[in-house]
Design goal:
The complex is a heterodimer of chains A (about 110) and B (about 220). Chain A is about 55% helix and about 0% strand. Chain A is built from 6 helices and no strands. Chain B is about 65% helix and about 0% strand. Chain B contains 10 helices and no strands. In chain B, α3 crosses α4, α8 packs antiparallel against α9 and α8 crosses α10. The longest helix of chain B has 25 residues. The chains are: A mainly alpha (about 110), B mainly alpha (about 220). The interface between A and B is large, with 59 and 74 residues.
Chain lengths: ~110, ~220
């Protein structure tokens, strides 16, 4: 079994957000975790960044009146359907300024 | 319009309502993260579903409807903002952003750092900071930190490479932190003084930014 070389403080702080987002390789995650557990200089930074990200996450809020919004959207969709604005051939007029169709949603291609 | 056309359109409309509309609360939440006020957010949601309905024939049934709708919402949001104001970070400065954020923390006395998130009324302060972010940074923060998408998912929604979404996310986070510090100083919650250079983290300059390599390839 290969033993990873211990990480220094500089390497750890560079990886801090990636670590908190759990987006490092398992080996790197373990290296950073081990360093933070033993480093009095780095741990407060990680603690602060974690608290900061938690605070940012708490900005997430639900719509206060989803039923009213749903009614509004359904009415708009019905109007669009009645006037023909929702027909597929109508979307050409909604091309992005740079010619890219913003509704094409390329996520379909790599989903 | 023939009877077949009418049946086909009715079936498409029904499928749209069954598959896309249940994600309206998700789109509304994402729009609130982007617009930061309800009227603008509601406009984004309505326009998103109108565009989605128009483009429904392009949607592949095995795709993720939420991601598809987020992409459209993101495009609607960006369209509503001045393109000229977009600041786009490059993909290779993510480490510098992380370092700069840590350096900002180093620059605060330990007690002040705690004050930043405890004594400052942090949610309104973050709301203000978020509203000041450039649209692309706001999209990245909203997708990853609020909607909890992975880097890969957020990159797909934003239609950019993963390195770009990471860079925008980190820049956005750092700008949020800088704004919090500024607001806390303005409110007299934390002092103006910063730590001396011998307390800086390795690889981080004490002057307010990450230590940059002095020679090519030194990083």
């Amino acid at each position: 079994m290969m033993i990873a070389e211990p990480l220094d403080c500089s390497a750890v702080v560079r990886d801090l957000w990636s670590y908190l987002d759990e987006s490092l390789t398992p080996e790197r995650m373990e290296g950073v975790r081990e360093h933070l557990a033993n480093c009095q200089r780095c741990f407060p930074h990680a603690d602060f960044e974690r608290a900061f990200l938690n605070a940012v996450g708490e900005m997430r809020r639900e719509h206060p009146d989803p039923n009213a919004l749903r009614s509004r959207v359904l009415a708009a969709l019905a109007t669009a359907a009645a006037t023909g604005a929702s027909r597929p051939d109508a979307r050409e007029s909604h091309a992005d300024d740079d010619g890219e169709l913003d509704d094409s949603a390329s996520v379909n291609d790599d989903a | 319009m023939s009877a077949d056309d009418a049946r086909s359109r009715a079936a498409a409309h029904e499928a749209f309502e069954q598959i896309a509309l249940p994600f309206l609360p998700d789109v509304a939440r994402f729009a609130l993260s982007l617009a930061r006020n309800r009227d603008d957010a509601d406009d984004i949601v309505q326009e998103t579903f109108l565009r989605a309905q128009r483009s429904w024939h392009t949607f592949q049934l095995d795709a993720d409807p939420r991601r598809w709708l987020f992409t459209i919402a993101r495009n609607v949001f960006l369209r509503s903002r001045e393109r000229a104001q977009r600041q786009v970070a490059t993909a290779d400065d993510t480490e510098l952003e992380t370092l700069a954020a840590v350096n900002l923390h180093v620059g605060l006395q330990r007690d002040s750092a705690e004050d930043l998130l405890t004594r400052l009324d942090v949610q309104p302060a973050l709301e203000r900071a978020m509203a000041d972010l450039s649209p692309e940074y706001r999209v990245a923060v909203a997708l990853v930190d609020l909607e909890e998408l992975s880097y890969e998912e957020a990159a797909a929604v934003a239609q950019v490479p993963i390195g770009t979404i990471r860079s925008r996310l980190y820049r956005g986070r750092r700008l949020l932190q800088e704004s919090l510090v500024t607001q806390a100083r303005d409110a007299g919650i934390i002092p103006l003084a910063s730590r001396s250079s011998d307390e800086s983290m390795p690889g981080i300059s004490a002057a307010g930014g990450p230590a940059r390599p002095t020679q090519p390839g030194a990083r």
